[in-house]
Design brief:
Strand content of chain B: 15-25%
Order of helices and strands of chain A: EEEHEEHEHHHHEHEHEEH
Oligomer: heterodimer
Strand content of chain A: 15-25%
Strand order of the largest sheet of chain A: 6-7-8-3-9-10
Radius of gyration of chain B: 33 Å
Structural class of chain B: alpha+beta
Number of strands of chain A: 10
């Protein structure tokens, strides 16, 4: 494994909280798809672990298996073999019902496209997980949580806006607020900046980073963009269904992508 | 262009479920139209067959006005008219048929038949009596009878069996017994309501019923004599006996008039079914255009002209329209068979079979295609207006504006209306047609109002769901406003179907209520005892019945025809004193006591409002009734009543018995209204029934008459309800289509919801709740529209009398059907939504 030295700690600089046990573990995950007569091995024995409050980026070329890995980590799909352990509980063999509950209560997702329900306003979209759970997000503590999540992504004042009244970056920030509102154990973001210009993408990455720094949120970010991955504490490089490398970056304020790009170049990516 | 046709075909094939649902919708619409056309053709054939059986090749039929018929002198004088080639006499009598085997029929209920006496030597020159078995009547004296197919089937009679008629008291037993010599292929030369006809030689009819005159004289005219000229000459010859002249054309017209209402209502329902089908086609093609907008953009970018784009969309519509229309022919044939059976069950005209009619098939397919193409025109034009630049942008949507949808709706309404006109009544019925058009117009207004009412009503009907399925209701309700135009069309199709059900329910309720009010307001009794032959007033029947325990009053009634102002009218002989004592009849003009007293004294007549309005009659006006040749009865209108006794083709003019017997030649009563005392016991009533039967009368309580009328109306309206239900099913197909499209369009959204923790069951429920909201909104609009359409139709149809009835059963049915059909229609889309894979749904590409 090739590693980079993390930046040394400095006074006032955010640090990754120490955690004795990993919050999420993947153990020897494989995923095989049958496409007619062809078999595709999307993942071939992937293992990794995340500490609470860590921002992990998964990088790799198209078709490398990074999105598949994210889906298995978040309980959206089941591995062909191997296990995913979230907060000490194996989630890779849950029933559909339990997996749904897991997604609702303990994980949050942000996708590249179509994250919002167009007919709901910002507050309703953010409160959607509560609504789905049969709770009223306009009342009591839930209302405060919705308000806080909206504030975290700097959208206070736009609660009543519909998605089509927001910019692409604002829409994606609403999606982040919705993913965070349930205070999930882990937030999984699949190419959240893939459809955005540089400035807007930066807004999103800042929001994700802030959630880690200010709230100790654990985040897994799938991206093919080294500049986005540079926000992470650690980068896993995936190729051909395997982890090719893990690159520790440490928690940095400048998010400089230079060292990472150089490392990736060494890897031929 | 062949390449583009192939593209159109592939467009249809790309969404097989949607294409199938749309084709089924078209098929059902065309099926109702085709069934209506076939039924109309069957009715026409039945009319032709009935007229042919009645008068055969006769050019003119002279019918006696009086029960005693035309005298031999009158017959001879008509025969002597130069130019009359054949004059075939017919005696027609209603009587009972005694059971061939004692005890073989229900005791005390003799079966009525119509006996037709013909001259076997002359009659074959007028009509051909087709036989199913046996042989024709050989000679005048033989005691052989031909019986109709229905009678043979009902009573299990065959060739060689004996039957016995109930004849005159003077007839010898032998004169009343006949051997069945043949079985007619149809109902025979009579209009017996049950098709129970017995044909015997005219001499044997005279022997059985006494010295009676000829009921009809059927004439064949030579080349030099027209029917009009013959009428004039007959008027000169028959100066002493009243008669009525009819031609085959006038008989057919009179029979057709009785089917006018049926044909007009069938036309309305068929139009509604096609209208609902048009909604489905529009929605499907609009969805296809939205879905394939990039493809259309590419075509345009590659050099396809706007006209070619229009051609592709219209060709896709034509595929669906043709497939649906052809399938509709098959379904329509089955539907027509069911309708023919139902009509035959109702009596009267009996379309025994469904004719094969290539013309009707071509008309139905052309109408189906025309409606399809009209419905496809707007999406086709919209597709052609797509700019290649706009189409290839990342965010693109092509939705019709509300205004263009409304314009489309009006255009389709006109095309469907024209298609519905194919089923319009063939003769007369201007009012009926206007009523149908009024109802149809009300449905258009309803359809136009749907886009504005959809969202507020969606919020309203969502309230109950909100308490139990909060998340599902919120998301489902929002879906109504996602593409308001599409949702409006979907709801509109369902609403017009349900509105038709409610409107028909209202009309049926009105008809029932009005019939019930009519009967109780004019009949001076609790029951009616009817006779198949007139009972002279002095034969002791009235006294005999009045003497029974518990009986307060017995009123004789006789129905007969009169001629007034050149038209035939119904009349009834009544006892004014009884009507006064019993408090019957509602007087709109004239003094009640004076008018009813004048009726018994003679010289007075009571006129129902419907006739008074039509003829412009007022109290005090004279009425001149010719009764043959130069003779006439002159009466004066002494009162105008709201409703009168029912006649064969409307309400009857009421005259006193004095004028009826002396002026119009009425020989006896054919019904007796019996009023029981309030103290009469059930035993009294039961004993009275037995007494009535023992003297050859048929008892019927007013309640049973009302029930029979209600039952008959229920059967007719049940038939229309069945057809309207097809329109509701088409609406349901629209919902299935729209929801499926919604699900496919929202795959990513569903993926996000699932990723956010929504269970499959919640997704399934969300789609079902969405369908439920659509169904309930459709039901509310359908109920409102149906009540409005019913009110419009009631206002146009000047039926008079009776108050509007709120059709609660139909309203309940509309709610159940609206909700049931919608939720059922949601089954597939909900399943589709529930099984969406999250991984696939949220995939970026």
């Amino acid at each position: 494994m090739i590693t980079l030295s993390p930046e040394p700690a400095a006074p006032g600089r955010p640090t990754l909280p120490e955690s004795p046990a990993p919050i999420l573990e993947a153990r020897d995950l494989t995923k095989r798809y049958e496409l007619g007569r062809t078999t595709v091995d999307a993942l071939r024995g992937v293992s990794l672990s995340l500490r609470r409050g860590e921002l992990l980026a998964i990088m790799g070329p198209s078709g490398s298996g990074k999105s598949t890995l994210l889906q298995l980590l978040g309980g959206l799909d089941r591995p062909t073999s191997g296990e995913v352990i979230l907060e000490g509980e194996a989630i890779s063999r849950l029933s559909d019902e339990d997996a749904t509950r897991l997604r609702r209560d303990r994980t949050g997702f942000v996708f590249q496209f179509f994250n919002l329900i167009p007919l709901l306003d910002v507050a309703e979209n953010v409160g959607l997980p509560f609504t789905i759970a049969g709770r009223d997000p306009r009342k009591g503590e839930l209302r405060d949580r919705v308000r806080d999540a909206i504030a975290l992504v700097d959208l206070t004042g736009k609660e009543r806006h519909r998605p089509d009244q927001l910019s692409a970056g604002e829409q994606q920030r609403v999606a982040i607020a919705r993913a965070l509102v349930t205070r999930p154990a882990i937030l999984l973001a699949d190419e959240p900046t893939g459809n955005l210009d540089y400035a807007t993408g930066t807004e999103i990455l800042e929001a994700l980073w802030r959630s880690c720094v200010e709230r100790g949120q654990t985040v897994v970010l799938v991206t093919h963009d080294a500049k986005a991955a540079a926000y992470a504490d650690r980068v896993c490089v995936v190729r051909d269904g395997r982890i090719l490398d893990e690159i520790p970056l440490g928690r940095r304020l400048d998010h400089a992508a230079g060292p990472l790009i150089a490392r990736l170049a060494q890897l031929g990516l | 262009m062949p390449g583009l046709a192939s593209l159109a075909w592939r467009t249809v094939r790309a969404r097989p479920v949607r294409a199938a649902l749309t084709a089924i919708g078209i098929a059902l619409g065309v099926a109702v139209l085709f069934a209506g056309l076939l039924t109309n053709a069957g009715i026409e054939r039945s009319i032709d067959r009935t007229v042919d059986a009645l008068v055969g090749r006769a050019d003119v039929r002279v019918s006696a006005f009086r029960d005693q018929g035309l005298s031999p002198t009158a017959v001879a004088s008509v025969r002597a008219i130069p130019g009359v080639v054949v004059a075939a006499p017919v005696i027609e009598r209603r009587t009972f048929l005694a059971p061939a085997v004692p005890g073989s029929r229900e005791p005390g209920l003799p079966a009525a038949v119509t006996v037709v006496g013909i001259d076997p030597t002359i009659d074959p020159q007028i009509r051909d009596l087709a036989l199913r078995a046996g042989s024709a009547l050989a000679g005048s004296g033989a005691r052989f009878a031909l019986i109709s197919d229905s009678l043979a089937r009902d009573d299990g009679l065959g060739v060689g069996d004996e039957l016995e008629l109930d004849g005159s008291a003077d007839a010898r037993a032998g004169d009343l017994r006949f051997v069945v010599g043949g079985i007619l292929a149809g109902d025979g030369p009579s209009t017996d309501p049950d098709g129970r006809t017995v044909v015997i030689p005219i001499e044997r009819a005279v022997a059985a019923f006494g010295p009676i005159g000829v009921s009809h004289l059927d004439l064949r005219l030579g080349d030099g004599l027209t029917a009009d000229a013959a009428s004039v000459e007959i008027g000169r010859q028959l100066t002493n006996e009243p008669y009525v002249i009819a031609t085959p054309g006038s008989l057919a017209a009179s029979l057709r008039a009785s089917t006018t209402e049926f044909q007009a209502t069938t036309a309305l329902v068929a139009s509604v079914a096609l209208f609902a089908g048009a909604f489905l086609i529009f929605n499907t093609l609009a969805m296809t255009v939205s879905e394939r907008i990039r493809e259309v953009g590419l075509l345009r970018a590659a050099g396809a002209t706007r006209r070619q784009v229009v051609a592709v969309v219209l060709a896709a519509a034509a595929f669906l329209g043709l497939a649906g229309s052809l399938a509709g022919l098959g379904v329509g044939t089955l539907l027509a068979t069911a309708m023919a059976t139902r009509i035959a069950d109702l009596g009267g005209l009996r379309p025994a079979d469904v004719p094969s009619s290539p013309d009707a098939a071509v008309l139905a397919v052309v109408a189906g295609l025309a409606v399809t193409l009209a419905a496809a025109a707007e999406p086709a034009l919209r597709a052609s207006a797509i700019s290649p630049v706009d189409a290839l942008r990342p965010q693109v949507a092509s939705r019709a504006s509300t205004a263009s949808r409304l314009r489309w709706l009006v255009a389709v309404f006109v095309v469907v209306g024209v298609a519905g006109l194919l089923l319009r009544p063939t003769s007369g019925g201007g009012d009926v047609l206007l009523r149908g058009a009024g109802g149809y117009l009300a449905l258009l207004v309803l359809a136009l109002a749907v886009p504005w009412l959809l969202v507020p009503l969606g919020i309203l009907v969502g309230v109950p769901f909100r308490f139990v399925l909060r998340a599902e209701e919120r998301l489902a309700r929002g879906a109504l406003s996602r593409d308001r135009g599409r949702a409006a069309l979907t709801v509109g199709a369902l609403a017009v179907g349900l509105a038709t059900l409610v409107a028909l329910g209202g009309l049926a309720g009105d008809a029932r209520g009005s019939a019930s009010d009519w009967i109780t307001s004019v009949v001076p009794g609790d029951m009616l005892a009817t006779s198949v032959t007139p009972r002279p007033l002095d034969d002791g029947t009235v006294a005999d019945l009045a003497a029974a325990p518990g009986v307060a009053r017995v009123t004789p009634i006789a129905g007969f025809d009169v001629a007034f102002d050149g038209i035939r009218a119904d009349a009834a002989a009544v006892v004014g004193a009884d009507l006064r004592a019993d408090g019957r009849l509602t007087f709109l003009a004239g003094d009640r006591t004076a008018a009813l007293t004048a009726l018994d004294a003679g010289g007075a007549v009571l006129v129902p409002r419907s006739l008074a309005e039509r003829l412009g009659l007022r109290v005090g006006d004279p009425m001149h009734f010719p009764v043959g040749g130069e003779q006439a009865v002159d009466l004066r209108v002494s009162g105008i009543v709201a409703r009168s006794l029912p006649g064969t083709a409307g309400e009857a003019i009421l005259v006193g018995w004095k004028d009826a017997t002396t002026g119009f030649g009425v020989t006896g009563a054919d019904a007796f209204a019996v009023r029981f005392r309030s103290t009469a016991t059930d035993a009294d009533r039961s004993a009275f029934d037995d007494r009535v039967r023992s003297i050859g009368l048929q008892p019927a309580t007013l309640a049973s008459v009302e029930a029979a009328v209600g039952d008959a109306l229920g059967r007719v309206f049940g038939l229309f309800d069945g057809l309207a239900a097809l329109a509701v099913i088409i609406g349901g197909l629209g919902i299935a289509n729209t929801l499926s499209m919604d699900v496919l369009e929202r795959v990513r959204e569903l993926g996000v919801l699932r990723a956010a923790g929504m269970t499959r069951r919640q997704v399934w429920r969300m789609v079902v709740v969405e369908a439920g909201l659509l169904g309930l909104v459709g039901a509310i609009l359908g109920i409102g529209g149906g009540l409005a359409a019913g009110t419009v139709m009631r206002a146009i149809g000047s039926t008079g009398g009776g108050s509007a009835v709120i059709p609660w059963p139909s309203i309940g049915l509309a709610v159940v059907l609206g909700l049931g059909v919608s939720v059922l229609a949601a089954a597939y889309p909900a399943w589709l939504a529930g099984r969406q894979s999250i991984v696939r749904a949220v995939r970026a590409d």
